[in-house]
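Example record

The entry below shows one chain as it appears in the dataset: sequence first, then structure tokens.
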Amino acid sequence: MTIPAYRFSTAPMMEWTDRHWRAFARTLTKKALLYTEMVTAPALIYGDLERLTEHSSAEHPLALQIGGSNPDELYQATHRVKEMGFYEINLNLGCPSDRVQAGCFGAALMANPAQVSECFSAMQNASGENGPKITAKIRLGIDDQNPEETLPDFMAMLSRAQIKHVIIHARKAILGGLSPKQNREIPPLNYKLVHAIKKQFSDMEIVLNGGLKTIDQCINELGEFDGVMVGRAAYQNPQILLQVDREIFNEDPPHQTAFEALQSYRPYVEDILQQGFPLKHLTRHLVNLYHEVPGARQFRRILSERAHLPGADWSVIEDALRAIPNVENL
């Protein structure tokens, strides 16, 4: 039996999960479902589509996250990207940032289930029977909502809209007074409620997101859920991804060590440098590769101080690696 890619996924994170990070992530896991950064529907309609959705086949399985609240725009955006090979197209109903709120989408949409239903109907129509599946990423609720009362109703609406795959960030979003960072930390996690939702909507694929930091924690939750999604923990400690293929998908990872993975990333780095991009665009995703081992601080310092210099190349990464004792085995 094939284990679906959404069994373990990495969260979409603005300014973090760009194509350079995704190329690096693929040296650590070939099986996990990766997500793009969120792209707004108007940008996909009127902007440089090739640049906004730039990716390679090596990044697959890859999901595209869209932000928007206008059904017509979401229809057009979905129609434009449906042939690009994305594993799924996800509508963002969870982001609490002020910028997203100003566009009346993200978590703010959870206050208007009727509009959400129209949005999903439009996206489903655009994708068609053979296109990528349309999925939702939500919070437990927003502001003064009582999630124990409102979340089951919201899930029922999603089910009626033929949305069968939902990623639930197990926190409320407080749209007035908390920053996005605070919204990831202050509202308490409520896994118990998400467990109850999975039991109530057993025919839906439910992916748990929020607060997951270790593979053991993920495996424990996979006893109940269809999948888990890990965000900052996978970015801030990338070696977690080295465990994913073996522990979650029962397959060998693409490389046995972070050192081997980084060496395999070198051709990509050198290709990007030849295109005229500075090294700092790539090394910012590498600074946490060695986490809490001797030499890690020096590794980070070398990358941070030298990658932005004119002419910086792979030798900067080699020098940083020399700061880690026995790095070939780590």
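Notes for this example: The chain has a mean pLDDT of 93. The chain is about 40% helix and 10% strand.
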